Amino acid sequence: MKKIITSMVLTSLIATSCDKKTTQNKAEYSGEDISKDVSIIRSKSDKAATLQIYTQGKWALYGGTSVNNIDFSQPIAQGVDSGTFPLNVPDDARSYFEVETEKGKAIVSDRHLPMTGGYNFRDMGGYKTTDGKYVKWGKIFRSDDLHNLTDADLNYLASIPLTSIVDFRSEEETQQAPDKNPSSVKMNYPLSINPGDLMAAVKEGIDKIKPEQADQMMMDMNVLLVTDSACINQYREFFRLLQDEKEAPLMFHCSAGKDRTGMGAALVLSAVGVDEQTIIKDYLLSNVYLANKYASYKAQYPAIASLFEVKTEFLQAGLDRIKKDHGSVENYLTKVLNVDIQKMREMYLD
Fold this sequence. Notes:
Elements: E1 3-5, H1 11-21, E2 30-31, E3 38-42, E4 49-53, E5 58-64, E6 77-80, E7 83-87, E8 96-101, E9 104-108, E10 122-123, E11 140-143, H2 151-158, E12 164-167, H3 171-176, E13 187-190, H4 198-204, H5 211-227, H6 229-242, E14 250-253, H7 260-271, H8 276-289, H9 291-300, H10 312-326, H11 329-336, H12 341-348
Parallel strand pairs: 11-14, 12-13, 12-14
Antiparallel strand pairs: 1-6, 2-9, 3-4, 4-7, 5-6, 5-8, 8-9, 10-11
Helix pairs in contact: 5-10, 7-8
């Protein structure tokens, strides 16, 4: 039977749990990989937090305003078995958690940031690498456009505190919809990436494009992102910023946060050692988060719905071209984008 255990009841269980925590002062991953069994969900409208957990047996959740200051003196929630549980944490600031089950421990936070004025805002933390480490939470973020963010959204981002913003949009896009900055941001970096005049081609023949042509256009664009010298120069500068500790926490974005940003995210996760299957799953999350943003466009122009979506074959076209030309994604990162793989992993992995 499912139970929620608060600090007001079952005092013996709480005491036992707290006794186990008296020597722990640092969040950690240990035991089995339970990270995929736990999610923190924040409401887009009011930023209220909820825990979703899939487990058997007792669990406890500890929280703090950063990974380094999680309070292990007393759990903020405890329970038995799987369920969805509301959390009593601030709604105007980001929180980080360690969850402990009978199988292991994991550090968690909200992957999808609760932006009232945005859609595809994500923390890239929490992914497990091929060598058993995890991407740090609260360091690298990806998003769609920032011009509709509310004051509450900006305060939430400032609580991270977000320090740098990289904007991959074209000059025309940035003029039409300038970024709104959280108060914590010290630098904005316009690194415009224009992989062909895709939208101009669409406007000229929007009624003539067939679905398979739209798919091919998206695959061609992803190849261009990793082969065009102008695109490469911008991704090279992006990684230079990522390797500068004073620039983090850093957010990078374009208009939808799925194509230019999607390739950037894939390259970042590759650099820190996340496997390709996980990278593609992360890429495909844009379909979930952008569904409402582009629903009307897809309904109006079903033949070109692919332009507002992501598909495995889109990203795969770019990754396959990298492997064909350079032997591996790691070779491309180190030899073309000047990425110091070891430094990236020291900076961004737990």
